[in-house]
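Loading example: each entry is read as two labelled lines plus one structure line.
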Amino acid sequence: MKKITIVDYGSGNILSAQKSFIKVARDNNFEADVTISKNLSDIKKSSHIVLPGQGAFNTCMDGLKKTHGLIDELYEFALIKKKPFLGICVGMQMLAKISEENGIHEGLGWIDGIIKRLPGDSLKLPHMGWNEAVPRNSTHNNLISTKNDYYFVHSYYFDCADNDNILAETKYGKNFASIVGKENIYGVQFHPEKSSSQGLNLLKEFIKV
Amino acid sequence: MVKIRIIPCLDVKNGRVVKGINFVNLIDAGDPVEQAKHYSDNGADEICFLDISASLENRDTMVKVVEKTANEVFIPLTVGGGISSVENIHALLKAGADKISINSAAIKDPVIVKRSSEYFGNQCIVVAVDAKKHFNDWYVYSHGGTKKTELLALNWIEKVQELGAGEILLTSMDKDGTKSGFDNELLNKVSEFLKIPLIASGGVGTLNHFYEGVVKGKADALLAASVFHFNELSIKEVKSFLKEKKINIRV
């Protein structure tokens, strides 16, 4: 029995994430309990954690900090127990050490790197719509094996300090990391829950981790 | 690079699709969830629901429709039609919509664009503009295209972009229903200054019209209703045609 918890810290549209995991579990006959929660006891009992994120980086970080002990519990889960953890969009960006969105803000720092603004001189920002993620060679396990299209909505990207943490890249003006990973910790810049069958496949791979 | 999007639009009244697919393989052709799922399975990049319910009570029905759709459909969902307040927007986003399109309410009070985009994020707020040409200028119409305003379409679009709109859904009233192609002259004029994505709407009838909307109109996304609903063209056909023509598209 998988226990997938989607961390609830006041970020928008997390229902879609929950529904997509329920759909994946149902379609693949996984026995899974998918809950939205910020209770530390739920986090403790989880087999998989999903950290969603929408909006500004510092607002999301502040939201996480608001629930006393939440960050410590997530740290315990991902870095001590090394259980599967997935950050989506700003949830992925929060894995970085620092973000440059609206000033300099500290992130969780679980994967070394800085969140920077995409070059928007000749391109429209946010980078919104379907784009291709191309897998890269890395010593870490990848969630995708072939290039696929996913749905993106973002203006900032994860500039990884260590190229080995880049599991897939996408081009928008420049190449940026669209999937990052380090051992049991994953982050996707796009929205798998909005990326049709390709997105659901990625969630399936994550459940199987 | 980001791909050109194909968006089927469904008119929903009191929770039922009134202009939608007429396919025999659908169990309930009036069910917006089933229609949205059909399009998603066939390669739609996004779904748009346009609520044409007359009364306020029926708008609550839309929230339920969105909730049910979000259970089954895993591509972005835009909801528009009669949205008049930040509370409306919040309820629909909470139910699972990804973007909300505002039209008449923005004309009545443009501050709603600023308030809602600041609160929910620019990417959630689409401003829909119905435009019609009079001599050499395009004017904005409100209330489902029934009331002419004194707003010039190009000025209005520039203004809502400044106010924080994340996308523009531009419908040409001259072209809508004619199946003679998008108004590429208008689209192109808007593309010249627009820094946010442009969704073309109104007039598409053939495969080549989609192509022209991209290369002549410079649109980022193409919205269509009847050509898809009446199965004159399928989304797959449109996409493989565009792909052959070297347009960057998801197939």
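Chain A touches chain B at residues 12-13, 15-16, 19-20, 23, 54-55, 124-131, 149, 151-153, 171-172, 193-197, 199-200 (CB under 8 Å).
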